[in-house]
Design a protein that fits this description.
- This protein is an alpha+beta fold.
- The protein has twelve helices and five strands.
- Strands 4-3-2-1-5 form a five-stranded antiparallel sheet, with no helix packed on it.
- A hairpin with a 3-residue loop joins strand 2 and strand 3.
- The longest helix is centred in the middle third of the chain and has 37 residues.
Length: 376
């Protein structure tokens, strides 16, 4: 009884000590990460793009589905250009809630017509339609004030593309595709890679030989060619890109997990779990994988960047996300011809967005690696 009381009095203190130790390690890691300015800046950039993707059509200048409102008269306008519109009422327009608008956009509740000039003539407006030529020579029209919703001026911060669509809105909604592909592809890669890598290292023998043979076969195929082949097999589309990219990225994860588990499975605490009769899955997922979580986080950040690049490449080749859904790769494809003309920025802007988000994930991964490195 005395020994049991002594042990019971010691155990709570040990639990408190373990909690305080883990808390101190977490706080130390976060403190080291905060001192890395590049990593913190990268985290801020990723959070900004994520918020932009989540809020979606609530914050885009063009709130129509896929930001696909086209005004051919306004094609290839320079950044910060302005245009006047007369908005004609449309009583049959669909009205959506703010949640539906955030996710799917809101069709225009009126018909917007670009105009060059307008005049208030009492009971009606007299307008000259915008043609984009010099001189304008637009059609003169008259609209009763009762059928006019409003006359407004819109500013295109990043200009318009060859179809007269707002480039800023396309960039903002295009971030949804890139981040969604990265997120779902990384989840697929982690599920397959962690499972196969951990099983191969833990069981060894023929299990390791079979899994390593599969790894080497997939590894020998160039990534881009494998993605293209899977895309052709599954078909072109939004969800197909997720699966195609995810099924080509799990090899790196499996190799890393296998190597880490091989070095850990002979530790004393793993031997203790076996002696206590814990199941294999509990030993792997409760006692081994938490100790290699730092390495998994680092390779996840790297794979996120790779997935964004792969999606952009597939969309540029025309076998990824299909129009009218905006994608940064599609935007580069549609506008790369302008590089030889006056409007090279139409191709550079989505390319710059791809570069910024990929660089942010790479620097974030490096920052996490440095923060978790106890030797430095």
């Amino acid at each position: 009884m005395k020994w049991s009381k002594a042990i019971s009095s010691i155990m709570p203190s040990r639990k408190r000590q373990d909690k305080s130790t883990s808390a101190s390690l977490s706080s130390l890691t976060w403190k080291r990460f905060r001192h890395n300015r590049l990593a913190m800046t990268s985290l801020a950039v990723i959070v900004l793009f994520t918020l932009m993707a989540l809020l979606g059509y609530l914050i885009t200048p063009d709130k129509t589905p896929y930001c696909n409102q086209q005004y051919l008269e306004l094609a290839a306008m320079k950044p910060f250009s302005k245009a006047d519109f007369i908005c004609i009422k449309n009583p049959e327009a669909e009205r959506r809630s703010w949640t539906e608008t955030m996710l799917f956009g809101q069709p225009l509740p009126y018909t917007a017509i670009p105009i060059y000039r307008h005049k208030d003539a009492g009971s009606y407006y007299e307008v000259e339609t915008f043609t984009g030529s010099t001189p304008n020579d637009g059609e003169i029209r008259q609209y009763a004030k009762s059928e006019v919703e409003k006359i407004e001026t819109r500013r295109f911060v990043l200009g318009t593309d060859g179809y007269g669509r707002d480039v800023l809105s396309q960039i903002m909604i295009g971030s949804r595709v890139s981040l969604s592909v990265g997120f779902i592809a990384v989840i697929i890669a982690l599920l397959i890679g962690i499972t196969l890598g951990a099983l191969a290292a833990y069981y060894g023998r023929w299990v390791d030989n079979v899994i390593m043979w599969i790894l080497n076969v997939v590894w020998s195929i160039p990534t881009v060619l494998l993605v293209i082949a899977i895309t052709f097999a599954l078909g072109k589309g939004f969800w197909q890109v997720f699966v195609a990219v995810g099924l080509t990225m799990w090899v790196d994860v499996a190799r890393m997990v296998r190597g880490q588990v091989l070095s850990i499975k002979e530790k004393e605490y793993v031997e203790a779990t076996r002696a206590l009769g814990f199941s294999t899955l509990r030993t792997i997922f409760r006692h081994i994988l938490p100790n290699i979580s730092g390495s998994i986080i680092v390779i996840t950040a790297s794979n996120f960047a790779s997935a964004i690049l792969l999606e952009a490449g597939l969309s540029f080749l025309g076998i990824g996300v299909q129009p009218p859904m905006p994608s940064w790769g599609c935007m580069v494809k549609e506008n790369y011809g302008y590089i030889l003309l006056d409007n090279a920025y139409l191709a550079f802007i989505p390319g710059l967005a791809i570069m910024i988000i990929v660089l942010a994930f790479m620097l974030l991964g490096n920052g996490i690696r440095d923060a978790l490195d106890i030797k430095s």
